[in-house]
Design brief:
- With about 725 residues, the protein is of the alpha+beta class.
- Among the domains are: about 290 residues, 8 Propeller (Methanol Dehydrogenase, Chain A); about 80 residues, Cytochrome c-like domain (Cytochrome Bc1 Complex, Chain D, domain 2, Orthogonal Bundle).
- Helix content is about 15%, strand content about 30%.
- The protein is built from 13 helices and 39 strands.
- A five-stranded mixed beta sheet has the order 1-33-34-35-36, with no helix packed on it. It has a four-stranded antiparallel beta sheet with strand order 2-39-38-37, with no helix packed on it.
- Helix 7 crosses helix 9, helix 10 crosses helix 13 and helix 12 packs across helix 13.
- The structure holds pyrroloquinoline quinone and calcium ion (CA).
- Pyrroloquinoline quinone binds next to helix 8.
- GO terms for molecular function: calcium ion binding; electron transfer activity; heme binding; oxidoreductase activity, acting on CH-OH group of donors.
- This is PQQ-dependent dehydrogenase, methanol/ethanol family.
- Its cofactor is pyrroloquinoline quinone; Ca(2+); heme c.
Amino acid sequence: MGRRSNPIRGHHLFNLRLRDVLLGMGMLLCAGVPVNAESTGDAIIHADDHPGDWLTHGRTYSEQRYSPLNQINARTIGRLHLAWHYDLDTNRGQEATPLVVNGVMYTTTAWSKVKALDAATGRLLWAYDPQVDGKVGVRGCCDIVNRGLGYWNGKLYLATFDNRLIALDSRDGKVIWSVDTIPTDADLGQQRAYTITGAPRIARGRVLIGNGGAEFGARGFISAFDAETGKLDWRFFTVPNPHNRPDHAPSDTVLMTRAYPTWSPTGAWVRQGGGGTVWDSIVYDPVTDLVYFGVGNGSPWSYGIRSNGRGDNLFLDSIVAVKPETGEYVWHFQETPEDQWDYTSTQQIMTLDLPLGGQMRHVIVHAPKNGFFYVLDAATGAFISGRNFVFVNWAKGLDPKTGRPIFNPDAQYSVTGKPFYVFPGDMGGHGIAAMSYSPRTGLVYLPTQQVPDHLKGARKFRPLPDGWNLGLDIQPDDKMPSIKEQKAAVRDLRGSLVAWDPVAQKARWEVVQKGPANGGALATAGDLVFQGLTDGTFHAYDAHDGKDLFSFDAQSGIIASPVSYRIGRRQYVAIEVGWGGSYGLFATGLARQETGSVNHSRMLVFALDGRDHLPAVSDDPVPSSPPPASFMPRQALAGSQQYLNYCQYCHGANVEWNGVLPDLRKSPAIQDKNSFYAIVGKGALSRFGMDRFEQSMKPDEIESIRQFIIERAHQTLPQP
Ligand SMILES: O=C(O)c1cc(C(=O)O)c2c(n1)C(=O)C(=O)c1cc(C(=O)O)[nH]c1-2
Ligand SMILES: [Ca+2]
């Protein structure tokens, strides 16, 4: 561990305070100590010696996403303007947290592409495109997003949508090594669909990465690769082997002895993999020398089908702690046993030192999808406290001793056989948007949302090779919701930024926003909280009371999380812009009624006295043609079921334009049966992410989708 071996040093509150004072007095004006190519681990542990950089996903290993820079503050905010922007070459959801190392910004975009930009000017230094095959686009649940890179000793680490982990030379983007992160026996073709959207984290010379896929069928795991060579060091599976056999992995003992008995041996999980994908948060904690990772939802969602309604199903929806060198199991805490609501625990894991019960304790704070804010002991995983931060109706609360939820039996739709309108819905009370902690206010700035879900369990389970496999009863409604009905549903939609006191477990203030699915938060020593919203605006709120001090028209919904850095004497704030992700693609008309967002993907960077401005954009970039004059109502009804099975999660719940993918109702492709089949059946547009479906649907089923789209065009487009 080099020069200073005490990893705790960088965590003292005192150091933060001293640094703030020095920064305030203008005594630390340069970009800080340059990051030596040989000591990234030390540099990350002592990130406050490098306040101008953003070295790892959450800036520090604690992932507090707090910047000690304070040039931009409530007094100077009036001078904050756009300093530069960079147009991205993929107009899809953009979710990356950029890294900034020694004056260079490294970011990723949709389709797992990498851009290295001069962080002061936005000039492109180099770009790398891993050439992800467009065909795999349909394998992701929630857009072809990527959340960012890892940096370690002069190398960058990129995890691609098609599951490669690639080491790049940070000087020129040349590939140093590339490995497939999926073991061959885990990939059962179209049925199990692994993809990667998350950012790799690096600790003790190992690159850590998981994957997604639990909506299709997958068995989750996290892998550790040697940062120098790409050799696999260990792999930890998150759900048991279906035959309860060893995988020859460090997870073997705990899965065989403790997890397997929590699953019904004859549930559908045995074929579907069980889920538990580690698709986002992975955190190394130098204080405990442990790696914590968040485990995702069950596959299929229906607990009745997945596990015959029996057992807790470990380690679904848990935080698991392992040793970084070996992957050896240390502890776990399960937040949602018996999951049937897609309540992933993959949301950002943050470590903190908090004054609790008269002493400082080193804790994990976590706000997973299930709507409860947890404080856990970081060394042992012991439950300290928990409180709901949004309205919840799946549980009546948490057991004050164990933290186990007290279930609402009515919410167990897959066991009762009765539908249930659940809060939070599958988007969670908190989703992919980063939260941020300011040691100056003691508050966690948490993007929250309310998107309830109407869930009805299927009686029979027939997995579809290319479709979502949730075990839900998803039927075409007699008719699609009218705008009036949609407006009524909108009343239950909500989004806000909550300033949460993790000691008192309560909100200190809340800014209610136009709708859900907003971007992540960044707190700074200037006592500002930056956040981008799905309505296409970027804000700076006062960290003390939430007062909106700055608003910028970013022209497109923001779902990513901002960073701050410094070059010379100048502080910058950067945000990647680009509407999409799960809500952007799926909620379509509903989402756009609230926000009107259309994708215009860019990196935006702000600074005091910035002089850049955005060009005007057109919000209807899709070439449009009027739909065919007539359609066959019976076929259209059949097509609505096919559309629900195969199309809605990307093209939207009601065939209204989502602002990201082409508007199908206006597409020239629906003019003619054969051209439609060439695309949907044969994959004529697979290069752009639209795979062929002829192996899943018969030609007349594909034609029925076309009929349905025409019907929806007649119902929803203004008549000429
Ligand atoms: O279960 C999974 O494997 C999985 C993967 C992903 C993903 O990789 O993006 C998401 C989810 N689940 C999910 O439940 C979810 O709400 C979600 C939102 C997003 C996004 O990027 O907007 N990804 C995912
Ligand atoms: Ca999921």
